[in-house]
Specification:
By secondary structure, the protein is α+β, with helices and mostly antiparallel strands. It has eight helices and twelve strands. This is 2Fe-2S iron-sulfur cluster-binding protein.
Length: about 290
């Protein structure tokens, strides 16, 4: 057995959060420090398996001596730093960002979005019905997952997961500029003609439901999707010997989707097409047995 080399402990950094002294590991972010201190900082584009992109700007905080608000998801802690997370300036910024996002995208399936909109008093409707929207029908061009870009906030997490940070397939990228910017396949080709390998890792990191399992999409359309009634069971994928962990989401005794634990040292939340979508044989076997 190969020995795992021991590393020296990370140095702790002393800083102040909302007037209270805290200690955080050197190299960690302000968002890490806030969460460790029990402070609820809203964020949409931050992912625990991806490098921060600073795209949504909902997690901004005020740092003493800084001219602009700092994105907590990427700003590293520094010795002696004084941070205020709930100032009028930070709250106003979050309110405006949430208004802009909710006016231009459908956040109905975005976890906690409605809660944050209410908390910060955001009024997306004040921009009127002419606010920029994608306003296109969901793309249902395969049996595995659906792309509903009306829910996309351009956080780039799917692009990073498909690209150099994980899959290295580069099937999707940002096309267009300004209001015309959108997530697209190369040359806007159909997904079935692109380099997509259907690993579903883009679905794993999507924070808004713009990318979703076909099973989830169909159940939501039918009004039968109920996360409160679902159970989650983590097991090991049986397709090969890599040892990827699967979390099976089960509703009414049927697997409705598969995710992977982000803290798993083998997968870090990522799977291949077999692990993420190849669960039908379990249900077929159960039905045949019955």
């Amino acid at each position: 057995m190969t020995a795992i080399p021991l590393r020296p402990p990370r140095r702790l950094v002393d800083l102040t959060l909302d007037g209270e002294p805290v200690r955080a590991p050197e190299g960690s972010t302000l968002l890490d420090a806030c969460r460790a201190a029990g402070k609820d900082i809203p964020t949409l584009c931050q992912g625990d398996t991806l490098t921060p992109k600073n795209a949504c700007r909902v997690c901004v905080v005020e740092v003493e001596g800084a001219r602009t608000l700092a994105p907590a998801c990427s700003r590293r802690v520094e010795e002696g730093m004084e941070v205020r997370t709930d100032t009028e300036r930070a709250r106003h910024s979050r309110k405006v960002v949430l208004e802009l996002l909710a006016s231009s995208a459908d956040l109905s399936t975005t976890p906690r979005a409605a809660e944050w909109i209410e908390e910060y008093g955001a009024e997306p409707d004040r921009f009127g019905t002419d606010a920029a929207r994608v306003a296109e029908e969901p793309k249902v061009d395969n049996d595995l997952y659906v792309r509903d870009y009306d829910k996309c906030i351009l956080c780039y997490k799917c692009v990073d997961a498909c690209g150099e940070q994980w899959q290295n397939t580069f099937a999707i990228a940002v096309a267009g500029r300004g209001f015309d910017a959108r997530i697209s396949t190369e040359h806007d080709a159909p997904l079935t003609d692109s380099a997509c390998v259907y690993c579903g890792n883009c679905i794993e990191v999507c924070p808004t439901g713009a990318l979703s399992f076909k099973s989830e999409f169909d159940m939501r359309a039918a009004g039968t999707w109920d996360e409160a009634a679902q159970t989650e069971t983590t097991t090991v994928c049986a397709y090969c010997g890599v040892g990827c962990n699967l979390t099976l989401h089960v509703q009414d005794n049927e697997i409705v989707k598969v995710t992977s634990p982000h803290d798993n040292p083998v997968t870090h939340g990522n799977l291949c097409i077999k692990g993420r979508f190849g669960y039908q044989h379990v249900q077929n076997h159960a039905q045949n047995r019955d």
